[in-house]
Amino acid sequence: MIIKSIFLSILFISITTTFSSANVEKIDVDAVDLFLILKSIENINSKIEKSKSTDETQEQKNVKVESVIDSKLKTLDRASRAIFFGYVEDSQKIADDLREKSSLEVRIDINRNFGYEYAVLRDEAKVELINLNKRANEFFISLNSEVKNNFEKETIGELLDGEIEEIKSMSLSKYQNTLENNTGGELFLELKESVESLESRKRSYLELLHYMNSTYEGYIGTEAKIINKLNIKYFRDEINRYVGYKVGRFGAGELAISVVIILFFLSLRKALSRLIVYLGNRVVYKIENKQNKEYLDSLIKTPLAYLLFVISIEFSFDAIYYPEVVSNEASRIFYTLEIMGVTWAIFGLIRGYGKILVSKIATKNELLRKEVVNLFIKVLYFFIIVFAFLLILHRFDINVSAIVASLGIGGLAVALAAKDTLANFFASIMILLDNSISQGDWIVCGGDEGTVVEIGLRTTTIRTFDNALIFIPNSKLSAESIRNWNRRELGRRIKMHIGVTYSSKKESVEKCVEEIREMLLSHPDIATPLNVNDNSTNDVMLSYNDLKGYKNTLLVYLDQFSSSSIDILIYCFSKSVSWQEWLEIKQDVMLKVMDIVEKNNLEFAFPSQSLYIESTPESKQKKEKDV
User: How far apart are alpha carbons 406 and 422 in whole angstroms?
Assistant: First the structure.
């Protein structure tokens, strides 16, 4: 196990070396200037607006816009990581802006005294832009301090939400109202330019805040907090300092950290599986049978090992690159793999508990059918898969609400395409509601005969008596007549004709019939009105015996004069409906009938013909001589 984990760790390091440039972007300490980032966002927004007004085709526009948006997302991601980890450059622009602000305030007072409204508004817009830049710088410094000191997601979220609301409430109406009265002139154009710069900066700042608000958990989540508390970065750097071994850009420190993390997580597999079984016993259903516990444990061990391995790889990524973070694309891939692992583990739990519950129901509770439980489990599987799929779509920023809304538009097409599937699904529900068949029943439907293995969402599985497996669509099963041989509580028919020879005496035949009847009436395994209660009067609206499957008719009579025998009809029912027991009872009845026939000096007739010769050549010659 240890060797396997070490091998996986080395493989993991090799893979990350290959794809590191795609998954993680290196942040240089002096690489990020906040105001250059905001200006870059403004330029990208301008490009998007310009691309919309070109004479190109819509497809060409879309390609350009997608390329620009991708660049914008990378810029936002780079800025967010730099801000969270304190890699924002101390810009000289703040000091320059503050000096400019002082001169602007003096100029505003002068222009106000002379009544130059446009000049006053122009300079006030510039002052507000300086204040906004200063506010952004101070906010990001305080945000970074909070990240370093507390690592509390709730606090970071509240700070970002509060700043977003403050910037949203920043009103520019006084400028916009003035710009609506377009009087032209140089001052008006200068005012318009100042206001547009302020609006653009406000919009780019809000975009950066919104992006940070949607992604901050990835930068200061549980993994980052653990890495920070355990001081993993320090140990990693120390190992790299003392050991010069490197694979690509990764040193011995990264390799050692990844091996330890993977070993630690995989060592939790057995303990976690037992904990889950224990909690399931406490919360869901108490399993006392040791074999059932081991069965449930085996079902969740494999998905749990997979899930822990994925988590260990993700944690290794975080630990190796800290304080840098993996890209949003890599984070989405890990999230998808983890959702798949959780879904797999849930399936194992449902399958384990489902099998145990079904077997319990089958032995103790006749009212709740195990087929219903099986169908419920399969429907539950379907909804879990859909829910997991929606979670993955949401993580990839796909509008789930729009997809659900579009189903209303395309619902007809989907329904037409899946009409057979829907028909089979509703047919399975009708089969269960009708209670026409159950698992283990011997049925005949059309040309198919066998034992029902399972009633599924789409098909019903039947095992034939020659050991083939047949899958019958539920819609066909619900549309055709079904002969269910298991729906009888008591009475499996025995019907035969006993042929005795024509040379038999009347008294012997009559006595034989009477003795056979008495033998059947006294037989312990033959159903008769004497040993089976008649419940046919329990419900005046229906025949109870016919509904439940009780048959106790017993008939022994001379039936017909056949071509070569006098036939005695024997018509009765065994108490057991089991085929093997029925064969044993039938055999016993036949042997006793043989004894009775022999006792009454009768002989069994066999197919024969009597040939009467009217004349022969010799007799004909003799007759001619006599004449």
Answer: 20
8-state DSSP, 453: E
> Distance (Å, rounded) from C-alpha 599 to C-alpha 99?
133
454 beta partners: 461
Q: Residues 193-210: pLDDT tens digits?
A: 888 888 888 888 888 888
Q: Which helix (H) or strand (E) covers residue 493, if one does?
A: strand 492-500
Quick one: CA torsion of 160, 164, 165, 167, rounded to 10 degrees?
140
Q: Which of 262, 313, 270 is nearest to 3 (CA)?
A: 262
State the Cα–Cα distance between residues 469 and 446, nearest whole angstrom. 16
Report the SS3 class of residue 183. coil
Query: Who contacts 528 (Cβ-Cβ below 8 Å, separation ≥6)?
Result: 520, 521, 552, 554, 572
Q: What is the pLDDT of residues 301-338, one digit of tens each?
A: 888 888 888 888 887 777 776 656 566 677 788 888 88
Which residue do the tokens 């022969």 mark? 616
- Rg of the chain over Cα atoms, rounded to whole angstroms, equals 44
Tokens 């840098």 identify what position?
Answer: 324
Cβ(198)–Cβ(42) below 8 Å: no
- DSSP assignments along 34-98, one per residue: HHHHHHHHHHHHHHHHHHHTSSS-HHHHHHHHHHHHHHHHHHHHHHHHHHHTT-B---THHHHHH
Contact residues for 424 (Cβ-Cβ < 8 A; gap 6+): 457, 458, 459, 473, 474, 475
Query: How far is Cα 54 from Cα 60, in angstroms, rounded to an integer?
Result: 10
What are the distances in angstroms from CA 210 to CA 85, 194, 242, 410?
18, 24, 43, 33
Closest CA to 568 of 507, 513, 519: 513
What's the pLDDT score for residue 494? Answer: 92
Low-confidence ranges of the chain (pLDDT < 70): 1-33, 52-56, 61, 85-93, 148-153, 183-184, 217-234, 244-251, 280-293, 321-328, 354-373, 400-419, 530-547, 608-610, 614-627
* CA atoms of 235 and 244, how far apart (whole Å): 15
- By residue count, the chain amounts to 627
Contact of 356 with 296, CB cutoff 8 Å: yes
Q: Which two tokens stand for residue 207?
A: 């975009």
Q: What is the number of other CB atoms lying within 10 angstroms of the CB of residue 186? A: 8
User: Do strands 492-500 and 566-574 pair parallel, antiparallel, or not at all (unpaired)?
Assistant: antiparallel
Q: Before 323, cis peptide (omega within 30)?
A: yes
Cβ atoms of residues 259 and 236 within 8 Å: no
Residue 497 DSSP SS3: strand
| Cα–Cα dist 321/332, whole Å | 17
CB neighbour list of residue 494: distance below 8 Å, 6 or more residues apart: 526, 570, 571, 572, 573, 574, 582, 585, 586, 589
Nearest to 596 by CA among 530, 492, 510, 495: 510
Given phi > 0 = left and psi -120 to 50 = alpha, else beta, which region is 462?
beta
| Closest to 321 in 3D by CA, of 26, 14, 31 | 26
Angstrom distance (rounded) from CA 439 to CA 451: 8
Spatial separation of the C-alpha atoms in residues 174 and 194, rounded to whole Å:
13
Give the span between the Cα atoms of 124 and 106, in whole angstroms: 11
Q: Where do the H-state alpha helices sit in 435-578?
A: 474-479, 506-522, 544-548
Q: Provide the whole-model pTM.
A: 0.51
